[in-house]
Each structure stands twice: as structure tokens, then as C-alpha cells.
Amino acid sequence: MPERDGYIPGVPCWVDTSQPDPEAAVGFYRDLFGWELEDTMPPESEGKYFIARIRDGDVAAVGSIPEGAPQEATWNTYIWVDSVDETASAVRDAGGSVVMEPFDVMDAGRMAVFADPEGAAFCVWQAKENKGARIVNEHGSMTMNGLNTRDAEGATAFYSAVFGWRVLDLGGGSAMWTLPGYGDHLEERYHPDIRKQIAAVGGPAGFEDVVASINPIAAEEPETPAHWSVTFAVDDPDATAAKAAELGGKVVVPPSDVPWSRITVIADPQGATFIASKFVPENRVLAARADSAASGA
Fold first, then answer.
1. The domain 12-295: what is its CATH number?
2. Quick one: which H or E segment has residue 121?
């Protein structure tokens, strides 16, 4: 699969995890995904930032929690933008808030941290030398980012205003955000046959423009705040769940079949949760069954 060399504005481009003990997290993810990790911070720095790589291609990072922030392990989603400062204005105008004002990250790029009106935090990235994840959609690399929300309509209005996203209904209660033109970008740069490949497995028209998922928070989870989640591609979700437990992690949701995929939700030893997923074309029938059940057919 071709390595990525940058993204277009409005596309998730990077993920990292903030950890109370980044060195310990490095050991967990190295053994789980086979990552090679390198601390890229200067020797005199108090914080750590380990870039994770597969075949020398950047895939994610493990870092220290910023000073003054809650000591809670999390996974963070970054969205590519042309201008962090202009995006900050758009976020405010759309009813969001600026958690961390725009700042430069050495020669790598410029970033900021925002929260949508429901409180879900996300980062934006204006690239300089760092062009985001080089390898995606293969074992141990980012394959999807999703917003867990109780207000899908309000979230859609916000992210549409900030990034131009639209909604693609997949049926069975599933929906995705799309970015018009993203499929054209992928077709031109990385996947000349992307539309044919999607059609061959029964995928819906427009899926080539998908940039993120919309995940409703269940009513029986009143304590769960709105948040962004990270999904990594894996070859075998069952083996990944077993390995994570062996390494001291927790299997929050056991491996199960869902429309288009088999997934498991895992918490690392310090509590940061993520999804491990394998694309299973045969599971597309689960969406049709869900539609039938919802309609009473």
C-alpha cells in the first residue's frame, strides 16, 4: 500500500497518546503492534515524545501529558488544516472552544487543541516538516477516527462549518462523515481503483470520501463524555485482544462482528482506550439485517 505524503484540509492525519508514564506505554504498544519507537524530544526536555514507526514510516506517537493537564491517559486525533489560526476562528464561530491556543512545534508544524460544543477535544495540524501518518490501513496503523456523541445533529452542524464535512448514511444506524473531493485525492495520489474496489465489495456510493465515523453514545452510558476515538487496523482482532490482556491491558469490548468489520475495544495498562479492527466484507450483511430489524420487516 503506498505511503502517504501529506493530506488535504479536513482529513484526520495523525494520532498520539498522552500517558502519565510514556516509557511504560512504549513497551506495551511495541509488543502489541510491533512498532519501533524513537524519542524525538531534545535530551534536556522534561517531556517525552516517542514516534512509532512501521518499516520506517511514521504511524503514531506516545508522549507525556502536558504540564497542568489532567493525568489521564488518552488517544488524540489530529485533523489536517491549511491554517491553525484561521481554524481557531472557525471553531469559535461554530460554538466550539479553544483548549490550547495555536503554537509551533519546532520545525515539525503548528497545532492547536479545540473542543466541539459537546466538549469532545481534538487537535489540528498545520504541517511543515512532519506530514502526518505515512502508513495507514494496515496492521498496527490508523484506519479510522470517530466521534462518540449524544448529539449527532449538533456535531454535524459544527464539523460541517469548520471542515466542510457531510453525512453518509450506511444503514443499520451507522453513519460516516465525508469530505467532498477526498476520494478524488485518494484516486489521484494513492489508489487509482478505489471506487472500483469499494463497489466490488458492495460498498455504498460516496464511501471513498469518508473521513470519520459518527458513533452514538448509548443511553445506558450516562457517565461517558463525548470524545474522539482512534481505530487501528489489525490482522486478527481476537489475537490482538488476547495479546493486549497478556501485556497488562484490558479488553473493554470482546471481539465481535459488526457491519463491515470485526472489532474489539481495548484499554492499555494506563487506561487509554482504542479500537482494533479488521475489515470483513462479508459482514456487510449485518447492516442489512439491522435495517430490517429497525423497520420491523
1. 3.10.180.10
2. strand 121-127
